[in-house]
Structure to design on (614 residues):
């Protein structure tokens, strides 16, 4: 039997630590055990360490999914903001009489990706109405996205802990949560982009091709990013020179992916339909809608703001939220010092994928500017994909830092380090361990510092009695008005509206020309002193109800309403009427035709107005 002094150090710690001093303290053993949790593993979910981090990742994603579910389903009159455009029209799947002959519903149906619309149709057929499914879907997508992100990180560097870190960072992003919580087509962007990365990294033909097809069915713009990555992957640097890859299997993978991508793009791009063509840059430059105070601001006077923010910009603000994503910027530096950061060796072979993603995103961003608005908004190609890259790279960088800090802590407790000063060795070990723990705690607890997390951009209806009253009106009712509340009527009353600020999307000429004329007519009808003009507009559009807010005839409110004031000369004429001695005909006639009134709103029977005496 060995004495304590003769005991083998391997029984307690790695042989490079060893020594009697290490035998007296469990610290090196504990730290080594923790550090081993971050070590590389085989790329298999059967490995115990991979399973541990995978389950931890699922648990974190499930927690976020529950929080999102609670925020989007907590009130009966609540709906994700963008769902008012892209989900409400699908109520036609459960009742064909809803939104019949509705120009707005027809438009949003036409721009909805095929797979996205058919998914909602399928669940409507199974008995889950679209608005209910839109509340369920985000939680499902959060968990599925977490799984694909974990698998992507495992393929990138075989460090299962990075999957957990990347998923945590992604789920802490306001943009990610907002996008997924919307239940719209953009909710699928991250999931299918990550699925493509998994297929591409595995060099799996069918998974890669399937992911591109799914992108086309649910979020067509992401197909362009994937195409760029595939084309960039054809080149590689060997022996100091850039060369084209010659492997036959690689070319088959790429060619097949590009054929699928081309099929998707052509299916969407060959026809413009009754709502096309897309707005041109020349047309947009003449429209106040695209300038400051416009409903869809795009152009800015400041070039830096134009290129960085809003619909025209790179949206680095999205990519760098949460601030923990800044850790991604340290990854290239870490890769330069593999002897100090050993886990870098597991990352280097595939780190070029991040470069390809960023180059592809930037390429399509600038091309979208050149072809404005044929490729829709330039920011759609950068903000979310930059966020995806930074979340993955940040998760990898964080684990490399934690591993290095723990290694330094262990080394500080070795006999050789203690020989130069025990206090110094414990200080270095304590600081390194503390920093490692702090990084992991910041990663997990960061949402606690964010007010209102998760931010899901939910529109909440307050005029419940108004919604209920309109819901009891005939299904072919048509509501007109300029109140902000008009945007909630289709969602909460299931009745059509003639116009609303929420659906004033000016990217397709065929759609917006009609909508702009409607809006100008509604402004003119609401503020004209001439009852004949008001009645002619009601008759022209078959308006059944007219909604007024308590401040509809307040000069300050009308003058400050950027939606109304972008339509000229009607917006200016409304101000002129209100500041003169004239009284709008609608204001004069409303009292005898009011069918519903609350503190904030007044609903008028428009058909009654047709026969009302002025």
């Amino acid at each position: 039997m060995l004495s304590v002094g003769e005991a083998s150090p391997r029984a307690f710690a790695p042989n490079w630590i060893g020594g009697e001093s290490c035998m007296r303290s469990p610290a090196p053993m504990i730290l080594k055990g923790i550090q081993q949790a971050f070590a590389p593993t085989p790329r298999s979910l059967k490995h115990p360490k991979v399973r541990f981090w995978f389950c931890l990742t699922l648990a974190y994603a499930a927690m976020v999914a529950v929080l999102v579910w609670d925020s989007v389903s907590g009130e009966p009159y609540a709906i994700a903001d963008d769902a008012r455009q892209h989900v409400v029209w699908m109520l036609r799947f459960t009742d064909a009489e809803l939104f019949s002959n509705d120009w707005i519903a027809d438009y949003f149906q036409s721009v909805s990706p095929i797979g996205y619309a058919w998914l909602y149709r399928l669940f409507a057929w199974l008995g889950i109405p679209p608005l209910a499914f839109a509340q369920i879907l985000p939680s499902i997508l959060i968990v599925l996205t977490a799984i694909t992100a974990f698998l992507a990180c495992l393929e990138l560097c075989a460090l299962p802990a990075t999957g957990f870190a990347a998923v945590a960072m992604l789920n802490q992003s306001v943009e990610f949560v907002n996008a997924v919580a919307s239940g719209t087509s953009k909710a699928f962007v991250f999931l299918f982009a990550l699925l493509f990365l998994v297929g591409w990294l595995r060099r799996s033909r069918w998974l890669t091709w399937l992911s591109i097809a799914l992108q086309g069915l649910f979020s067509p713009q992401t197909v362009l990013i994937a195409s760029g990555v595939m084309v960039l992957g054809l080149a590689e640097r060997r022996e100091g020179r850039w060369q084209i890859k010659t492997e036959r299997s690689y070319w088959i993978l790429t060619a097949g992916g590009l054929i699928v991508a081309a099929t998707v793009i052509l299916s969407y791009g060959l026809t413009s339909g009754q709502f096309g063509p897309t707005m041109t840059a020349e047309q947009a430059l003449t429209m106040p809608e695209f300038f400051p105070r416009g409903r869809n601001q795009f152009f800015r006077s400041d070039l830096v703001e134009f290129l960085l923010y809003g619909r025209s910009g790179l949206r680095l603000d999205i990519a760098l939220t949460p601030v923990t994503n800044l850790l991604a910027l340290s990854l290239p530096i870490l890769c330069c010092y593999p002897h100090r950061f050993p886990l870098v060796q597991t990352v280097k072979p595939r780190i070029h994928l991040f470069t390809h993603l960023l180059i592809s995103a930037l390429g399509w961003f600038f091309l979208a500017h050149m072809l404005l608005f044929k490729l829709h908004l330039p920011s759609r190609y950068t903000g979310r994909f930059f966020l995806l890259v930074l979340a993955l790279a940040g998760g990898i960088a964080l684990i490399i830092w934690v591993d290095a800090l723990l290694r330094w802590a262990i080394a500080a407790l070795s006999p050789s380090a203690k020989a130069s000063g025990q206090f110094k060795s414990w200080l270095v070990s304590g600081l390194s361990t503390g920093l490692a723990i702090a990084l992991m705690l910041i990663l997990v607890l960061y949402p606690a510092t964010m007010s209102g997390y998760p931010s899901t951009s939910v529109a909440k209806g307050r005029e419940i009695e108004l919604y209920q009253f309109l819901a009891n009106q005939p299904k072919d009712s048509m509501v007109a008005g300029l109140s902000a509340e008009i945007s909630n009527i289709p969602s909460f009353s299931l009745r059509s509206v003639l116009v609303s600020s929420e659906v004033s999307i000016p990217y397709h000429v065929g759609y917006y020309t009609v909508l702009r004329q409607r809006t100008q007519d509604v402004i003119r009808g609401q503020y004209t002193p001439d009852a004949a003009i008001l009645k002619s507009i009601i008759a022209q559009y078959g308006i059944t109800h007219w909604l007024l807010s308590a401040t509809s005839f307040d000069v300050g409110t009308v003058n400050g309403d950027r939606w109304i004031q972008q339509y000229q000369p009607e917006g200016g004429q409304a101000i002129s009427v209100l500041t003169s001695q004239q009284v709008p005909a609608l204001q004069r006639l409303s009292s005898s035709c009011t069918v519903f009134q609350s503190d904030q709103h007044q609903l008028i029977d428009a058909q009654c107005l047709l026969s009302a005496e002025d």
User: Anything to note?
Assistant: Residues 383-412 form the longest helix (30 residues). The longest strand covers residues 545-549.
